[in-house]
Amino acid sequence: MKKFPFITEHVAINILRISTSLFLAAHGAIRLYAGTVSGFGEFLNSKGFIIGMAIAWFLTFFEIIGGSLMAIGYFKKWIASGFILQLIIGIILVHAQNGWFVVGYQSGGMEYSVLLIISLVLIAASNKQKGLLL
After folding, report:
1. DSSP secondary structure letter of residue 7
2. How far apart are CA 16 and CA 35, in angstroms?
3. pLDDT 10s digit of each residue in the chain, 134 long?
4. 7 backbone dihedrals φ, ψ, rounded to 5°
5. How is the chain split into domains, by residue range?
6. Helices vs strands, H then E, count in the chain
7. Separation CA 85–CA 81 (nearest Å)
8. Whole-number Å distance between alpha carbons of 80 and 72
9. Among candidates 118, 121, 99, which has minimal Cα distance to 108?
């Protein structure tokens, strides 16, 4: 395939993988840094999860560690699958009731989560090579 205008498909999918991974890792890192893990756990408990606090801590570390590993090219399919599951549950619990748009016409909708899911499907479907730019 002809290079568009300066990158190949291979480099493009790596840019997608690295940037998506870092967005997800940052999401967990800010929850940890801001001290909002307990609030997330309480929210999960309010939605009927018996061990909401444990789930909140697991997801926080999964986002940080999983996002970091996926950024450098390790366990892409498994980690992407975990993130997809997490995002689908987030859509069901939070975002679907807020509509489609995240900001503007509506608030807190599911458009960003759907975009992340599409990105993660592409990452999971990419080649089996490991490494930062492989």
Report:
1. B
2. 29
3. 556 677 888 888 999 999 999 999 999 999 999 999 999 999 999 999 999 999 999 999 999 999 999 999 999 999 999 999 999 999 999 998 998 888 888 788 899 999 999 999 999 998 765 555 55
4. -130, 155
5. 9-125
6. 6, 0
7. 6
8. 13
9. 99
